């Protein structure tokens, strides 16, 4: 029996890309239907994440295989993506998520579906190369993936949010109730049979990146603090190290006093105060970040609100 495929695409100010994205994805669906790979009920699901341009007007104008899900306001990429996945879960047998900027290779969908047919519940789209990224972005991305894995988060290297998930995998994902979403870390926790498909990453088709440096840093920070308590443990060990250093300094000061070699030590005292004060502020800020996340989780507020759905 042929499976129904839904392609979920979160959108924020993507009016310049959507015509071409819809054209290419519609053609891909038609080809897969003609090849008897998927059912003709397969659809494209655009999730408008409170865009300020004419993204929603574009989505409303498409018709055909396009379904539009409009969020009541901007909730961020991860929440918009989750909204689309949870909607698609109720209608599709298999779901593929991707961005609207056409940097993800649409032809990789065929390979993903082949892997799904082989029994894999989750298929990650992994970038085989990042030639179009700047040296800075390429190196920071590499550092991010290495750091996340060092801190204990199971993040698939060079994989973003281009992935295939079966209906079963999505039902398991729905059981994770985190408010602070980091899907790249959550999906591997599901633990179902998974594999990878490599593809070359293209340049953005049009418009500007929705992840400037500031958002990239915040995204990385959310990922680290949502999936690892190692930073807090590092504070503990830093405190232990500083304590032993202070014992050595105290012993040295006592010996100097007994020998009568008392030095004023003004510079040393001032440096110590500023260094320890800075470490304390950093430590309090880091602990406060975790407490803030606990506070956000404890309120159990909805992660998104759907204002309108069209094209069903």
What is the CATH superfamily classification of the largest domain? Spore Coat Polysaccharide Biosynthesis Protein SpsA, Chain A
Number of helices: 10
- Mean pLDDT across the residues is 82
What structural class results from the helix and strand content?
Answer: alpha/beta
CATH topology of the largest domain: Spore Coat Polysaccharide Biosynthesis Protein SpsA, Chain A
Radius of gyration: 25 Å
Domain module count: 2
DSSP strand count: 8
Q: Could you tell me how far the N terminus lies from the C terminus, measured between alpha carbons in angstroms?
A: 22 Å
CATH architecture designation of the largest domain: Alpha-Beta Complex
Pick out the low-confidence regions: none
**Largest sheet: spatial strand order:** 7-5-6-4-1-2-3-8
| Most strands sheet | 8 strands, mixed
What is the chain-wise order of helices and strands? EHEHEHEHEHEHHEHHHE
Q: What's the helical proportion of residues?
A: 40-55%
Outline the structure in words.
By secondary structure, this protein is an alpha/beta fold. It has helices spanning 15-34, 55-62, 77-89, 108-117, 135-150, 167-173, 183-190, 213-227, 230-259, 266-299; strands at 5-11, 43-48, 66-71, 94-97, 122-129, 159-166, 194-200, 306-310. The chain folds into two domains: 5-227 and 303-310, Spore Coat Polysaccharide Biosynthesis Protein SpsA, Chain A; 230-299. It contains ten helices and eight strands. An eight-stranded mixed β-sheet has the order 7-5-6-4-1-2-3-8, sandwiched between helices. The mean pLDDT is 82.
């Amino acid at each position: 029996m042929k499976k129904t495929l839904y392609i979920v695409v979160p959108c924020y100010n993507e009016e310049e890309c959507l015509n071409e994205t819809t054209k290419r994805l519609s053609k891909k669906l038609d080809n897969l239907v003609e090849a008897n790979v998927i059912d003709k009920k397969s659809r494209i699901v655009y999730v408008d994440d409170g865009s300020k341009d004419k993204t929603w007007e574009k989505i409303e104008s498409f018709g055909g295989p396009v379904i539009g899900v409009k969020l009541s306001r901007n909730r961020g990429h991860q929440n918009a993506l989750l909204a689309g996945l949870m909607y698609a879960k109720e209608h599709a047998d298999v779901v593929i998520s991707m961005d609207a900027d056409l940097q993800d290779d649409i032809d990789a969908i065929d390979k993903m579906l082949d892997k799904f047919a082989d029994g894999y519940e989750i298929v990650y789209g992994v970038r085989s190369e990042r030639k179009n990224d700047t040296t800075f972005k390429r190196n920071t991305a590499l550092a991010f993936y290495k750091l996340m894995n060092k801190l204990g988060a199971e993040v698939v290297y060079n994989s973003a949010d281009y992935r295939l998930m079966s209906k079963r995998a999505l039902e398991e994902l729905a059981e994770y109730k985190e408010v602070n979403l980091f899907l790249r870390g959550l999906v591997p926790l599901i633990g179902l049979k998974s594999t990878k498909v490599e593809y070359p990453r293209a340049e953005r088709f049009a418009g500007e990146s929705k992840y400037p440096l500031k958002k990239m840093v915040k995204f990385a920070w959310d990922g680290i603090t949502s999936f690892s308590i190692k930073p807090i443990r590092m504070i503990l060990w830093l405190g232990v190290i500083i304590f032993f250093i202070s014992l050595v300094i105290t012993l040295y000061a006592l010996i100097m006093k007994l020998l009568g070699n008392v030095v004023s030590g003004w510079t040393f005292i001032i440096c110590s105060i500023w260094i320890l004060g800075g470490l304390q502020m950093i430590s309090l800020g880091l602990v406060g970040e975790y407490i803030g996340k606990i506070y956000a989780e404890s309120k159990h507020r909805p992660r998104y609100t759907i204002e309108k759905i069209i094209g069903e």
